Amino acid sequence: MTPPSLVSRTLGLLAFALATLASPLATGAVATQASAPDFTLRTMNGPNLRLAEQRGRVVMVNFWATWCGPCRQEMPQLDRLYQKYKSSGFVLLGVNVDEDVRKATDVAAKLGVTFPVLLDTDKAVSKLYDLSTMPSTVIIDRDGKVRYLHRGYLAGYEDNYDKQIRELLK
Amino acid sequence: MSPLPRAGVAALLVLGATLLLGGCSSVSVPTVEPWVKPYERERLADPIMRFSRSALPEKHIEHVRDVREGSRGATGVQGGGCGCN
Amino acid sequence: MAATRAALSLWRRLAALLGSLLGGLLAIGGVRAADLPEDTGEGLLHVYKGGGVTAAGPAFLVRKSVADRFSLTGSYYLDAVSNASIDVVTTASKYKETRHEFALSGDYVYRDSQITLGGSTSHEPDYTANRFSLDISQEVFGGMTTVALGFTRGDDKVGKKDSPEFSDTARHWQYRVGISQILSPRWIMSLNAEALSDDGYLGSPYRAAQVFGAAVPERNPRTRSARALMLRVNGDLGSRDAMHASYRYYTDTWEIKGHTLELGYSRYFQETWLADAYLRYYTQDKASFYSDNAQSETLYVSRNRQLSTFDNAAIGAKVSWLWRKEPGKYEVKFNGAYEFVHFKFKDFTDLRSGDKYAYSASILQLYVTGTF
Fold first, then answer.
1. Residues of B in contact with A20 (CB under 8 A)
2. Which of C243, C252, C248, C229 is nearest to C179 (CA)?
């Protein structure tokens, strides 16, 4: 048997396998139009913060980690949005999933983040929201309902966020 | 040429394909959900866990070995890492 | 003729395969996307010294992302070789030679797939090697599995110093497939398989074989087919350290069987230091036509010690120092790596002493890496 023939067969099998993998993953516990699952987490500065207490404001929950490149890219953009809309009833909660809190504090400081950073060290809230990607951004309206769910971050996403926040603030 | 490596490679690939198909909802195979969540990949994202850290020195050492040893090949797929986006 | 027909049908098959693969990749939904490799600048100084050979030189690599989805990588590698190896001193005299290599590759990321096209050209006064490669990798199963396919095609031109009448060629094909699988938050494994095929002049015009005690030019087959399978496991050990293990099995139509085993350990010290240590063991069986001193006339004969029965053991260490870091902006590291390897031949004689040949070599690398 000549090399090309065996190789073509196995590569052909793989191509078939890959071509049939058309599945987006399960969307998880968070579906749009459903109530955002409530949680209470410690903030970087000390006091606890509860999601349900933000009812009446538009809330953006961004899950991030220091080891996630796209997360670090996104943070300065989110900070801009926070500064822009915080006086209009918008609050941004950064939920960090690092195991080392000091690293999270360090990176948040270096990136110049001004919005509250919550610590989800034991990943309970991440599990509650059944995150399928890092980073994940959830936008919740004034009634506590999940309106938009963004998976991942690519340059330009922040323009979408801006539009959606403005729409919900009306 | 021994049939063993050939059969072994083909078998492993079929096994791999079956495992992958398990994640597909349109095929009626008992599904297996990914058991390492994206927020649990902190250790895997660390450079210490990469199979390949720096291209140049690795290329050099592979060249040094290829020139002096009879064996070649099969050195490379990257994977793991942060898995972000 | 048959080789050309085989090559053509192979190209057709490959084109069909790539077509179906790309079609499959583009049809896959989901918002996940592979990460484009980071912008990088690397400078390396490499030195090899052992067995009478000294090879040293610089190497550079630059990688830059263009337009958010493309990344271009360019590299240059120089090898200045001073060769007084056992072959050279017993059959000729010491010589110096320089090899240059340029490589250029482009990466394209689309959703969970990454496509890499690359080419390289290597020049020595008497040998030119050109390579073209295509690699596709795909993240599947929630990002826990990465599947990759690759293909390399090579064309070499072989010459002989001071003999313009000698000119020959060699062609190479390599097909790779690999799967990398996350086993747990701390363990990852990968399995890579490669099929290699060579055609043409596969020897050295300077090397002599020994038949009945007399030196004759070596006679190698003009084809060689090989298979290699490599298994690797990396595990995080919990205290800012990790272990690495790998095993590779190689076999080819020249009847060489090679086993490579490598074990390594990496550990972070304080905030800026990273150290690695490893052990590597390699053993191989000789090619069917290899002979230290042939006692019969055979179609093919070679005394190339690279094809003999031998093993080598190596111990190595690497150190990396993080000089400056701005998370999300840049990172610069200074690194050093050293390996000491000892070769022991079972059926290659050192003609100067009459004993089985053995030698040690040192490999040193000093390099700086910057990621942006």
1. 21, 24, 26-27
2. C229
Q: Is the Cβ pair A23, B25 closer than 8 Å?
A: yes
d(CA C331, CA B47): 13
d(CA C265, CA C354): 39
CB atoms C185 and B43 under 8 Å: yes
From B47, B81, B59, select the one nearest C367 (Cα to Cα).
Answer: B59
pLDDT in the model for residue A121: 93
Q: Do C21 and A10 touch (CB under 8 A)?
A: no
* C123, pLDDT greater than 50: yes
| In chain C, % of residues over pLDDT 70 | 90
Q: What angle do CA C136, C192, C372 make, to 5 degrees?
A: 55
Considering Cα of A164, then A89, then A79, then B43, what sign does the dihedral take? Answer: negative
Identify the architecture of domain A27-169 in CATH: 3-Layer(aba) Sandwich (3.40)
Q: Could you state, in order of their start, the residue ranges of all structural domains in chain C?
A: 2-27+39-371
ipTM score assigned to the predicted complex: 0.88
- The domain limits of chain A are 27-169
Q: Report domain C2-27+39-371's class.
A: mainly beta
How sure is the predictor about C36, in pLDDT bands with cuts at 50, 70 and 90?
confident
Delimit the domains of chain B by residue range: 1-33, 36-85
pLDDT, position B11: 52
Q: What is the pLDDT of residues C254-282, one digit of tens each?
A: 999 999 999 999 999 998 999 999 999 99
- Report the predicted TM-score, pTM, of the whole model to 2 decimal places: 0.84
Q: What letters, b where the CB count within 10 A reaches 16 and e where it falls short, cover C252-279?
A: bbbebebebebebebbbeeeeebebebe
